[in-house]
């Protein structure tokens, strides 16, 4: 009898284990379906309709919204591609700084004595916990042309005030500088964790061979943290593509429309002009572009890594 009951008891335990695992996953699954999957499906549906919130009917128009975006004679073409170009410029300006300075700070903090390392890590990470509205107000106070803290300091030194937020290239410098100061702490913490995983005996062996600090960095540190580096590059790119709060609150898209990023145009279409159909189409195209850029970055990184292994 015992031999017959044993498989049954084991099967029950397996089912109970699977049920327990499913219950742990269930809250995330509910949130994923409610806040990501269903809104995505509904967004695709809306993009295929002439969906104006002020109209009672929302007729199905197929891919007409997408055709308007790619029609050079349409105002939507200008709005989308001008906004996309400004977004790409922000990505190109900010991502290298976020990666390079984040890694440099991580290396610097790792070289500090352990007693003060945690203090400086906290100091550099604190801005990341502040909301974008607070950061924008802070930098508006610092960079205001007439009464900003920085211009007051420059004028006390005998220099003319700088139009940080009202003239190019100062507007881009201000936006990128504020973003780097605000979000740098996250990348720094990721890099610190990655550096702590590099085996110490590799550095000791290279020191015995007479390797310099730069050679250790190039031949040991960078190859060891390459997967984390790729993660940081991709997440920073996605975050920079989604920039909205800084240009909206600091420059209002100016001077002119030189800092009006794509997300600002999409939000204006959806909530000011009530054109949810065309706004959804633009948002989906923007998502596809971000996915494509991430795939390209991943492929390039893998190809470079395979090339090094082949040597």
TrEMBL record:
Organism in which the protein naturally occurs: Sediminibacillus halophilus
Q: Which positions fall inside the ABC transmembrane type-1 domain?
A: 84-297
Lineage at the top is: Bacteria, Bacillati, Bacillota, Bacilli, Bacillales
Spell out the protein name for this chain: Multiple sugar transport system permease protein
Source species, domain of life: Bacteria
- GO cellular component labels: plasma membrane
The text of the family note is: Belongs to the binding-protein-dependent transport system permease family.
- Keyword field: Cell membrane, Membrane, Sugar transport, Transmembrane, Transmembrane helix, Transport
Q: How does it sit in the membrane?
A: Multi-pass membrane protein
């Amino acid at each position: 009898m015992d031999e017959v009951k044993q498989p049954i008891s084991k099967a029950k335990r397996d089912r109970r284990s699977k049920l327990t695992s499913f219950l742990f996953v269930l809250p995330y699954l509910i949130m994923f379906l409610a806040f990501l999957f269903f809104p995505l499906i509904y967004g695709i549906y809306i993009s295929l309709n002439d969906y104006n919130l002020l109209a009672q009917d929302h007729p199905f128009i197929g891919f007409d919204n997408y055709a308007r975006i790619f029609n050079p004679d349409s105002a939507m073409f200008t709005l989308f591609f001008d906004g996309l170009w400004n977004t790409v410029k922000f990505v190109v300006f900010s991502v290298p700084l976020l990666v390079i300075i984040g890694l440099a700070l991580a290396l610097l903090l790792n070289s500090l004595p352990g007693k003060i390392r945690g203090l400086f890590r906290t100091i550099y990470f604190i801005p990341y916990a502040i909301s974008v509205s607070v950061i924008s107000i802070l930098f508006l106070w610092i960079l205001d042309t007439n009464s900003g803290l920085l211009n007051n300091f420059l004028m006390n030194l005998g220099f003319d005030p700088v139009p940080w937020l009202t003239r190019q290239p100062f507007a881009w410098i201000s936006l990128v500088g504020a973003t780097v100061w605000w979000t740098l702490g996250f990348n720094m913490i990721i890099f610190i964790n990655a550096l702590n995983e590099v085996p110490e005996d590799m550095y000791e062996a290279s020191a015995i061979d007479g390797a310099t600090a730069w050679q250790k960095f190039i031949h040991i540190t960078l190859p060891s943290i390459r997967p984390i580096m790729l993660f940081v590059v991709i997440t920073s790119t996605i975050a920079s593509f989604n920039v909205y709060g800084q240009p909206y609150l600091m420059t209002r898209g100016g001077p002119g429309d030189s800092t009006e990023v794509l997300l600002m145009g999409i939000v204006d279409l959806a909530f000011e002009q009530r054109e949810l159909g065309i706004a959804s189409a633009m948002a989906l195209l923007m998502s596809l572009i971000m996915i494509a850029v991430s795939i390209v970055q991943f492929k390039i990184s893998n190809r470079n890594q395979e090339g090094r292994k082949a040597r």
